[in-house]
Amino acid sequence: MKMLLKEFPFKIKTVQTDNGREFTYKYQSSEVKSPFEIELNKLGINHKLIPPRTPWHNGKVERSHRNDQRYFYDWETFKNIEELNTKLKGHLEWSNNKTMRTLEYKSPMQLLSEKLELKSIH
């Protein structure tokens, strides 16, 4: 979460996740919060959970994971965490600058740049 906040050029108001234990203890305890939930609380960020057993609500994330698997993890090997992070950085650079039909043949970075430009004009 800290890395995400550092990299994003705008304020994050809400984070949506599935119900995995890395994100919530909702189904284990009604009183105990996960470290992720505690951190979001400290940062004043809302946490929205998708309904259980509905991965289609998380479709963009699922597609992203599938592409990362297909174009990165299936092809790369890593000796240690540092090597993984270095190679992953290169993959993310490629992925974020790749044009996509769903973005009208713009890359995620191009679209973000346009949105930030429009925001600064207003």
Structural description of this entry:
The protein is mainly α and 122 residues long. The chain is built from five helices and two strands, in the order H-E-H-E-H-H-H. A two-stranded parallel ribbon has the order 1-2. Strand 1, helix 2 and strand 2 form a beta-alpha-beta unit. The longest helix has 16 residues. The mean pLDDT is 90. Pfam families: rve_3 (PF13683).
Work out the radius of gyration. 17 Å
Low-confidence stretches: none
- Termini separation comes to 29 Å
Number of distinct beta strands: 2
What is the percent of helical residues?
A: 40-55%
pLDDT averaged over residues: 90
> Main β-sheet: number of strands, strand sense, barrel status?
2 strands, parallel
Strand content: 5-15%
Spatial strand sequence of the major β-sheet: 1-2
Secondary-structure element order, as H and E? HEHEHHH
GO molecular function, one term: nucleic acid binding
Protein name: Transposase family protein
GO biological process, one term: DNA integration
Organism: Ruminococcus bovis
